Every structure is written in C-alpha cells, then in structure tokens.
Amino acid sequence: MRFRANIENVVIFQRVLQCVEKLQKRCIIKFTEEEMHIICNQESEDGVQVWSQIKKDALFSNYKIQSNAANVISLGLSPDALLQALRSASPSSSSNSSSAVDGGGVGAYASIGASEVVMRLAKKRGQAVLSLEIIFDGGSGNGSGKVVVSHDVLIDVLKPAEMERVKEPMCPEPDIHILLPPLTKLRTVTEHLRQLADVLEVRVGRRGDLRLAVDTDDVTVETLWTKQRRPKKGKSAKEKGKEKEVDKDKSFAVRLSVRAFLKFLSVHVVSSTTIACVCEHHCMILYVYIGDAADVGGVLTFYIPARLTGSEY
Amino acid sequence: MQAVLDDKALKPFTKALTCLSKYGENITIRASQDSLSLSSLNSSHSAYCNFKYNRDFFQRYSLSKSNDPGPSASNSSRTPAETAFAWSLNTKALLTILRHRNNDKSAEKCEFIVVEGQQPETQDEAREDEDSLESRLILRLHCKHGVVKTHRLLLNEASDNFVPIKPQNDQENRICVHPRTLKDIIDHFPFSKSAKSDPQLIWRFGDLEVSVQSVDGGIDTKGKTQLATELTISSDDFEEYDVSITPMSVGFHLREFNASVAYADGMSVLMELHLAAPSEPLCIRAATDDCEMQFMISTMQVRGAEDEPRPSAAQQAANRVVSSSNGSVRKRGREEEETPARRKQQIRKSMKVVEKSDGSAANGDVSRSRASVSQRSAASAFPEPEASQQPLFLASQLSTAAVNAIRESGLGLEEMDADEFAAFMDDEGEDVDFNGLPSPSRDRAENNAGGATDERMDSREGSLEYAESDEGRGSLGPTQLQRSPDDGKTFHALFED
C-alpha cells in the first residue's frame, strides 16, 4: 500500500486534530480515494464519538493512494503526535505551550512558511510510520540553505476486517434540527455550568429556541437563545406534510454530560456552522462544518449519548 | 567587595542570573581585581556555566580586604588565590529580588556589597552588619523617588573550586552560530512540558549539513515513542562552520543548552561552539564588550555503524600511546574513557566537565602546563595539573574544615599525591629515608610517565633503606617535598610494635 499527499492547509488539519486530541489518545484515520475520515470511537466515560469526513481537496494536493483494499488505508495513531509534527510546519513563537493555540504563529520560519509539507506512508526501522517531511526554503534570514524537518509518527495499520467492525453508531431519526449559535458563546456558558452540575439538559424548540439548563438541588440555571435558525431540510413530501400538523411550541430535550458537551465544544476553533440534531432522550448529533458554508470542505460529526437520569419518563 | 550596576547593566545581569539558575542551584561568585565571575554547576556535574564580567561593566568596582595592603600592591607576587574572593549563594534568592525589580522598572542603580563576616573590623557598612559570623551580600536597589530597597543575603564559602576542563585545542571543530538559528532548530522538536521530561537531542555534524535528531520524543501511550523527528539544516546557516572530523555525532541534554541559547538570544550575541571530539564536553563561548560567557555541557557519544568518525593520523598515533599507558595511569576518581579502538554502538557519557582545583585558577582561566597533555589523546580530556600544584584529591569531597584538619595534623598529607598516599597508608614494608629529595618537577615528570611506584623510588636521589615494618620505624620526613627545611614535618609511626 502506498500513500502520499502534500498538505496544503496545515492550519485546518491542525485544528481538526486539536479537537480530536482533546477527546482521545488514539484515533483512526481512514484515507480513501476521495476523502479522509477521522474516527474516534473508543468507549470513554462520556461516550462521545467523532466521525469526520473531509474531502481530500480541502486539505491536500497531489494526493496519491493505492492499496489492495479498494484503495482504502486505515491507520491508528496518536493525534497528539501528529499534531506536534504539524506544529513545526507552522511554528508559533510559543510553540512549547501545550494549551489550545491555533496553528498559525510567528517564528522565523512561519514568516516564510513551509514551502512544502509532504505526508507519506513509510516504513522506518521496521515500523510503519506516517512520515511528514517539511521543507523550508530560503533559510531563516541568516543563510541561504534550506531546512528539512522530518517527523515520523508511529502508526498501526488496520486490516480491512477490523475496519468493518468500526461502524457509526445507530441512531434513530432525529426529532429536530437547529443551527447552533457560535460555539465560542456556548462554550463560555457551558464552562460556567460545569461548575454547578454534571448533567446538562439541552432543549430545542421548533420556534428556534435553544435552552441549556442545569438543575440541581441547590441551583437551577438556564440559558436561552431565541430565534435560532432552523435548517431547511429537503425532505420528502410526506415529512413536510407531517410537520404542518405538528405543534410549533413543542420542544425536544436531551440530557447530556456536561463534560461530554464541553469536549465537543472544543471544536469551536474550526467550526463555521454547526447543526445540532436532537434525538429526544437518546442522543445528540452535531454536525460541524469545516470551512465556509458555501464551500464546505468537510464535516465533523459528533455523537453524544444521553445521560439517562430516570426522570425523563 | 563593592560593585555598582546602573540600570542598563542590570538587565543583562538579571538575564545571566536566569541562565545560571537553570544550570544549578547555587552560584559561585569569584571576585578579583579585574573581573567578577559568576559560575554555576549542576548537581550531576554535567553542565557548567560561567559569566565573567570585566570591571568596566560596573559603574564602580572595588575590592578590598582588611589584610590586603591595597590594590596598588603588585599582584604578580601573589598567587591568584590570595586576591580572589569566592562565595557561593543560592541563585533563586538573588534572582527573585532582581527579577522582581524588572517588574517595577524603577530601579536606577544597584549596589552589591559583600561584607565578610570573619573579620571583626568590617568595611564601611559595619554598623549595618549585625551578624558578624557569616558573610553577607548586601543588595541595595536605588529606585526612583528616593526609594532604596536593601536586601541581605547569606553568602557561603565557595565550597568547591570547580574549574572547567579546558578543551585541548580551541580551534578544532568550531562553529559560530546565531542563537536564533539554534532556537528555531530546537523549536521544531516537540517536547512534552512535564517536569520530568529531560529532552535530549543528537546532533550530527557533517561536511555540508547538520542533522539533529530526537532521541525519544512525543507522547508515550503504549510505552513506545510515538514521534521521531529529524531536522537537517545546511551549514550555510551557521556563521562559521569549521568541523575537521566529519561526520561527528554528539548528543546532549537540552535543559542547560536551552538556557544558554535563550540568554544569547536575549543579548544578541553570537555563540561559538567548540567540540574537540565527541567524547569531550561541548564548550560554548560568547562574548560581549564587558562579559565573557562560557558554558560546558557534557555530551553523550553516539556511535553508530553508519558514521565512524575518521580521526586524523596524528590522533590515531596518540590513541595508541594512551592505550599502552592506560593500564598504568592512576585513576584519579574520574571516569576512564575507552579508547577509540574499542568502538561499539552505544551512547556513553563523556567526561565530567569540571574538575577540582585548589584555587589556582580562581577566575575560570585555567592555564595548565601542557607538558603532560601530549601524552594523552583527545579521548581523555583531563590535563594533568600544574607542576607546581600538588593537589591531593582531585575530585575531593573534603570540606574546608576537613582540609584544615588534615593540614593541622602535620602528617604532610596534603603534600602527597595519590601514589604516595597509597604508599603511606597501605605499604607496610618500606621504611624509606628521604634525604635530599629531588625537585618536584622531576617527580611530576616521572609520574606522568606512568611509572610504577617502585621505579620512582628507585630513581630518587639519596639512599633508600628498606626495613621491616615490624622493627619499628624511625621518623620520616615528608614523602613528597619539603617546602622549607624548617617545616620538618616529621611523622612518627602510628603503632609501636
């Protein structure tokens, strides 16, 4: 199997990996002929899963893939390692800080930027690695030599049989969809709510209102956004007919773990638009679009299961 | 000692202290007529750092001691040990004070006054020195609006007189580089920021390019390293690149190196890296108008199958000499280096970067006689001590009190070198009469040849009488040299049988 691509958009790639890195220590990346999928489906305490799909052209150029399994290559790797490798492609002056820093920054090389970043599947010292080669041309102002940095990220190549078992979680048809307000604002609110309780209730109403609430013995806090846009779905006529009969004031709620919601909200760096789908008392599915709404490069899908507290029924 | 720094000089001084604090916990201050030097050594003795400030760096600089007739007396008659002062002090204490000042930005002048505690009459500031038993460093910051902040810090006696091993050949393998380049190189290597991470890098110096590799890197989830990084940079990016033996690989820890790079970057001075051989410590030098910096970092030799350094023919010849005399060379408490003839793929620690001296090299300038050095190849980086000095324990752990006790015992121990001491302690049967001892320099020369004890004794002038130890011993003169006939440090047998 062979794989090689030039990474054009390092920043977006970094941001996506940052979200994933906050969730899990390992993730699966699946390269197909047209897309790159990033999958985080390890069972964690919060149960958050991420399934993302990014068109290859949004991130890469000169993309070449070849494998026996219908030109699909699946690897498991540590997103943090890959992220650190990418960081040196656009280093920031405080590149040593491990906090959430977005990829762009100033350093002697960033002003020139990497002239080329090549990602390749390789075998080094008997181990399969994803090798990133970053070439800086033109030197750092002192000399005229070019600098080549090469990072090798250890990977596990997954067999097609193993990939078969990796499937998106089963969810019923969502009850309601809504466009979320900017995730940064949601994040601020949720951070405050995190101090108060473990379970957060998200309630979406048909009129476009979004309500985040926390209800404990000591305190009840609720935050309401109104007039949120609801995405127009191109559904079949049957669905449309159904909608008309439905009560406009109805709202659907789902209870989530606050921590899980916060983990999802860490994707605020990359999102332009986010659509939330609520399956009442079951789960919440969030579609985060990368890039402009018009020219969507990819989507990150978050599955957050509901926390059943027994008081819904 | 009294020194005054104006605010322009205080900033670089504080930066230097920050760098020193990364190297070790204590700094040793050595003051002489011409310069003030600050040095620090890390706990494992694998990194050494020295800043030497010319007296012009200070607005005012004066050195006086109560039994010192004055700066006008000729210093040439004195050994440096007598005019130099040495104290040691906790770096963090000094740094906290000065760094705090940086936040204020209001200090206009900073006075350093050292008050020696031993003498009953102290200098001008006697009335403020209530505690006369210890030396104190008085730091007086004159700030704006007439505010004067006075800090009193405890000074200890400089416990060890560590001095860096001077590299054999200064000109070999010299690389001048702007610290910004080095900083950029290191930035590319991702390191975890946990306190226990101790990053290391392996540098390979080739003919036209330098490659830097990480040893272990990245996050370790399954006990395996997840990320390996390698950077290649052309030698054009270095200001000067003069490496004679290529390819040469060295590895070293980054913590101290980063501190030096950060300092040099802040001061915008070029850094000169010297590496005589992969087994020798890395020596970094930098200099501004008033200050000379020297950093020594011990290196790990990385020998791989791919790159076998090709030493020059002269060095190979020297290697052969060493391997033959290695067996009989005394161990002086240092690590013995394997000869290059026995190369294996391994990473080995190089020699320690410092060794003890007894104060003859107070300010870090070690001028040592090179007579014996030629006998050792570059593989062993410890030159023999000067002919006139005869330290007893080179890597001594003796405190000052212990040294004084030994001196007072009158056994003449401090005049012996290791072999004589061994003879003194262990040898039973040799009752020798040392009349008319040969000159010390000749002793030294004989020692250098690595001859056995017996040979040396035989070649001495005077008759040697061997007697049974059981029959009692007469009084013997000192085994090494007699400084003056009056000293007459005789010793008597411990056990009268």
Explain this structure.
The complex is a heterodimer of chains A (313) and B (497). Chain A contains 7 helices and 17 strands. Chain A has 313 residues and is of the alpha+beta class. In chain A, helix 5 (183-194) packs antiparallel against helix 7. Among the domains of chain B are: 2-66 and 83-118 and 133-157, Proliferating Cell Nuclear Antigen (Box); 173-301, Box (Proliferating Cell Nuclear Antigen), CATH 3.70.10.10. In chain B, strands 5-1-7-8-9-6-2-3-4-19-18-17-11-15 form a 14-stranded antiparallel sheet. A 6-stranded antiparallel sheet of chain B has the order 14-13-12-16-20-21. Chain B has a two-stranded antiparallel ribbon with strand order 10-22. Residues 66-82, 119-131, 217-221, 305-348, 358-396, 432-474 and 482-488 of chain B have low confidence and may be disordered. Chain B has 10 helices and 22 strands. The radius of gyration of chain B is 26 Å and the shape is flat. Chain B is 21% helix and 26% strand. The A-B interface holds A 25-26, 77-78, 80-81, 84-85, 87-88, 91, 95-98, 107-109, 124, 129, 139-140, 142-154 and B 178, 180-181, 184, 187-193, 209, 218-219, 221, 224-239.
